[in-house]
Amino acid sequence: MYVCSCFGITERQVREHAETGACTPRQIAGACKAGTDCGSCVRKIQALLGRGACPRREALDPVVLTGRGQAATAAAPVPAAAEAA
Hints:
The protein is mainly alpha-helical. It has seven helices and two strands, in the order E-E-H-H-H-H-H-H-H. Strand 1 and strand 2 form a beta hairpin.
Protein backbone atom coordinates (compact mmCIF):
# COMPACT_ATOMS: atom_id res chain seq x y z
CA MET A 1 0.00 0.00 0.00
CA TYR A 2 1.28 3.45 -0.88
CA VAL A 3 2.03 5.82 1.98
CA CYS A 4 3.35 8.72 -0.12
CA SER A 5 1.64 9.08 -3.45
CA CYS A 6 3.78 12.08 -4.41
CA PHE A 7 6.92 9.93 -4.56
CA GLY A 8 5.39 6.44 -4.77
CA ILE A 9 6.70 5.28 -1.38
CA THR A 10 5.10 2.18 0.11
CA GLU A 11 4.59 1.00 3.69
CA ARG A 12 7.21 -1.65 3.07
CA GLN A 13 9.77 0.95 2.02
CA VAL A 14 9.06 3.06 5.12
CA ARG A 15 9.48 -0.01 7.34
CA GLU A 16 12.74 -0.92 5.58
CA HIS A 17 14.11 2.57 6.20
CA ALA A 18 13.03 2.31 9.85
CA GLU A 19 14.87 -1.01 10.16
CA THR A 20 18.04 0.62 8.87
CA GLY A 21 17.83 3.46 11.39
CA ALA A 22 15.37 6.12 10.21
CA CYS A 23 13.42 6.66 13.43
CA THR A 24 11.48 9.85 12.70
CA PRO A 25 9.40 11.17 9.81
CA ARG A 26 12.19 13.65 9.09
CA GLN A 27 14.73 10.82 8.80
CA ILE A 28 12.34 8.88 6.55
CA ALA A 29 12.05 12.01 4.40
CA GLY A 30 15.82 12.22 4.18
CA ALA A 31 16.02 8.60 3.10
CA CYS A 32 13.29 8.58 0.44
CA LYS A 33 11.64 12.05 0.21
CA ALA A 34 8.32 10.79 1.61
CA GLY A 35 6.52 13.67 3.30
CA THR A 36 8.50 16.45 1.62
CA ASP A 37 6.02 17.47 -1.08
CA CYS A 38 2.39 17.88 0.03
CA GLY A 39 2.96 16.50 3.54
CA SER A 40 -0.30 14.54 3.70
CA CYS A 41 1.56 11.29 4.42
CA VAL A 42 3.49 12.49 7.47
CA ARG A 43 0.83 11.24 9.90
CA LYS A 44 0.79 7.86 8.14
CA ILE A 45 4.57 7.68 8.48
CA GLN A 46 4.32 8.58 12.18
CA ALA A 47 1.75 5.82 12.67
CA LEU A 48 3.98 3.30 10.90
CA LEU A 49 6.96 4.26 13.02
CA GLY A 50 4.96 4.21 16.24
CA ARG A 51 6.69 3.77 19.56
CA GLY A 52 9.58 1.38 19.59
CA ALA A 53 9.56 0.89 15.83
CA CYS A 54 13.17 1.97 15.59
CA PRO A 55 15.63 -0.77 16.51
CA ARG A 56 18.28 1.87 17.22
CA ARG A 57 16.09 3.92 19.57
CA GLU A 58 16.93 1.77 22.61
CA ALA A 59 20.61 1.70 21.69
CA LEU A 60 20.68 5.49 21.44
CA ASP A 61 18.82 6.08 24.72
CA PRO A 62 21.41 6.60 27.49
CA VAL A 63 18.85 5.69 30.17
CA VAL A 64 18.37 2.27 28.58
CA LEU A 65 22.11 1.82 28.02
CA THR A 66 23.09 2.53 31.61
CA GLY A 67 19.97 1.20 33.29
CA ARG A 68 19.68 4.49 35.16
CA GLY A 69 16.52 6.46 35.48
CA GLN A 70 15.39 9.22 37.79
CA ALA A 71 15.53 6.83 40.74
CA ALA A 72 19.25 6.36 40.17
CA THR A 73 19.88 10.11 40.15
CA ALA A 74 17.87 10.54 43.35
CA ALA A 75 20.14 8.01 45.06
CA ALA A 76 23.29 9.88 44.04
CA PRO A 77 25.71 10.65 46.87
CA VAL A 78 25.18 13.96 48.62
CA PRO A 79 28.26 16.24 48.78
CA ALA A 80 29.79 16.65 52.25
CA ALA A 81 28.94 20.38 52.32
CA ALA A 82 25.24 19.60 51.92
CA GLU A 83 25.34 17.00 54.73
CA ALA A 84 26.79 19.55 57.18
CA ALA A 85 23.99 22.06 56.55
